[in-house]
Design brief:
By secondary structure, this protein is of the alpha/beta class. The chain has 2 domains: about 5-180 and about 375-390, Rossmann fold (3-Layer(aba) Sandwich); about 190-375, Glycogen Phosphorylase B (Rossmann fold). It has 12 helices and 16 strands. The strands form 3 sheets. The chain has an 8-stranded mixed beta sheet with strand order 3-4-2-1-7-8-9-10, sandwiched between helices. Strands 13-12-11-14-15-16 form a 6-stranded parallel beta sheet, sandwiched between helices. Strands 5-6 form a two-stranded antiparallel ribbon.
Length: about 400
C-alpha cells in the first residue's frame, strides 16, 4: 500500500529553537514512523531568497526564501505560487499547517484546494500591549478579528495546544498539547541538593518582550538583596546570597537585559549562555534549583520550558497568565504568581530556595504530571489518528 503524503507547513523549523518548531518536528517524526503516511516539511529559510531542499533526519524539508521580515514574521509575495507548486510536486494529500506567525500557515490553508487541512494554532492573542506597540497591535487586532476566523473556518480540523489558543472552542477543534520526551528529560538530584540557580529558557527578542525577562531580572535583584545590602543575610532568606540566574536562549533583546542586570547590580550573578539543545539543555534543566517562566500576556499559550523542567523534577514558578495555569497546578506541582509582579516572583523563588522539602515535593509532583499528561508518544498517537481521519 502506498503511503499518503502529509505536508507539514510551519513558519519555522529546527534547527531554530522554539515551541512551534519543536512541535512541528515531532509531528514530522511521528508521520515518518507511520507505515501509511509520509511527511514533507515546507518552512522558511533563516536567510537567503532561493528555495533549499534537503533530507533532514529522514524527512524531506523544503525551505522557502523570505523577502522581508516584519518583527518576527518572515514574508514573501511568492509564497502562494511556491506553496501550490510544492504541494503538487510532493504529491501532498493532506496539509498540516502550524501558526500563529501570520503568513505561511494561513496561506497553506488557503491554497490547499481540495486537500483536507489540519491547522494547529499555538497561541492566544498576539496583542503585545507594550509601550510603542500601538501600530503593531492594531494590525494584529485586524488579523485576529477579520482574517483568522476565515482561516479557521476553511480548515477541516483545528488543533488547539491549550485552552487559551484562539482555536479553542471551535466546533471542529481538538486539544493536543505540546509534550516532553520523558526518557530524555529525567530527574537529577533532588532540587534541595542542587546549586542555587534560577533558570530561564526561552526567546529574548524585543518582539517577545511579553516573555517578561525584565521582570525576572528585577525579581532576581530582590532575591539576592542587591537593592538592600542586608536583605540577603536576613533570617527570612538564609543562604540566598549565593543564588545565580542563568539565561538560556538568544535574541536581539539579550544585550538590553544584560544592561538592566548591570543597572540592578546583579550582572556578576547572571550567566547568559546562549541557546542550548540536546544533552546540554537537559543538563541545564535537571541541575537548576528552580525554573522560572515570567510571561506577561496571553501570548504564552503553553510554556514548553515548564513541562521540560517538571519532567526533570525541577520545581517551577510561572505567571498566572495564558496557558500557564493549565500546565502548573499552584502549590501542587509548582507555584503561580501574578504577571509583571517582581515582588511576588521574588517571594516565590525565595520560598523554593529556602524550603528544600517544598522544592522536592513540587519537583516530584511535577515529574508525575509530566509523565501522565505530557509524554510525547500518547500525544502523537492522537495527532496521527486526527491526520488519518481527514
Amino acid at each position: 500500500m502506498s503511503r499518503r503524503t502529509v505536508a507539514i507547513v510551519s513558519p519555522y523549523y529546527p534547527p531554530k529553537v522554539g515551541g512551534v518548531e519543536h512541535y512541528a518536528a515531532r509531528v514530522a517524526a511521528a508521520v515518518a514512523a507511520d507505515d501509511a503516511l509520509r511527511p514533507v516539511v515546507i518552512t522558511t529559510r533563516p536567510s537567503g531568497l532561493r528555495t533549499a531542499v534537503a533530507e533532514e533526519d529522514g524527512v524531506t524539508v523544503v525551505r522557502l526564501g523570505a523577502w522581508l521580515r516584519l518583527s518576527n514574521t518572515p514574508l514573501s509575495p511568492l509564497w502562494p505560487l511556491q506553496l501550490r507548486y510544492w504541494l503538487r510536486r510532493t504529491g501532498a494529500e493532506v496539509v498540516n499547517a502550524h501558526a500563529p506567525v501570520p503568513g505561511l500557515g494561513d496561506l497553506a490553508v488557503a491554497v490547499a484546494g481540495r486537500r483536507p487541512t489540519v491547522l494547529t494554532y499555538h497561541a492566544g492573542s498576539m496583542l503585545k500591549g507594550e509601550p510603542g506597540s500601538g501600530a503593531a497591535d492594531r494590525l494584529i487586532s485586524v488579523y485576529e478579528r477579520r482574517v483568522l476566523p476565515r482561516v479557521f473556518a476553511r480548515a477541516r480540523a483545528l488543533v488547539a495546544v491549550s485552552p487559551v489558543s484562539l482555536a479553542a472552542g471551535h466546533d471542529h477543534a481538538v486539544r493536543i498539547t505540546p509534550g516532553v520526551d520523558t526518557e530524555r528529560f529525567t530527574p537529577g538530584e533532588p532540587a534541595s541538593r542542587r546549586p542555587r540557580t534560577l533558570l530561564y529558557v526561552g526567546r529574548m527578542d524585543r518582539s517577545s518582550a511579553w516573555k517578561g525577562v525584565d521582570v525576572l531580572l528585577r525579581a532576581f535583584a530582590l532575591v539576592t538583596g542587591a537593592d538592600s545590602p542586608d536583605a540577603a543575610d536576613s533570617p527570612d532568606a538564609p543562604g540566598l546570597s549565593g543564588v545565580r540566574l542563568r539565561l538560556v536562549g538568544g535574541g536581539d533583546a539579550l544585550a538590553d537585559h544584560l544592561r538592566l542586570a548591570e543597572r540592578l547590580g546583579v550582572a556578576d550573578r547572571v550567566d547568559a549562555v546562549g541557546e542550548l539543545t540536546g544533552a546540554d539543555l537537559v543538563q541545564a534543566v535537571r541541575t537548576a534549583a528552580v525554573l522560572v517562566l515570567p510571561s506577561r500576556t496571553e501570548s504564552e499559550s503553553f510554556g514548553m520550558s515548564l513541562v521540560e523542567a517538571m519532567a526533570c523534577a525541577t520545581p517551577v514558578v510561572g505567571s498566572a497568565v495564558g496557558g500557564i495555569p493549565h500546565v502548573v497546578v499552584d502549590e501542587e506541582c509548582g507555584l503561580l504568581v501574578p504577571p509583571a509582579d517582581p515582588e511576588a516572583l521574588a517571594a516565590a523563588c525565595r520560598r523554593l530556595l529556602a524550603d528544600g522539602a517544598l522544592a522536592d515535593r513540587l519537583g516530584t509532583a511535577g515529574r508525575l504530571r509530566a509523565e501522565q499528561h505530557y509524554a510525547w508518544p500518547d500525544l502523537m498517537r492522537r495527532y496521527l489518528e486526527l491526520l488519518r481521519s481527514v
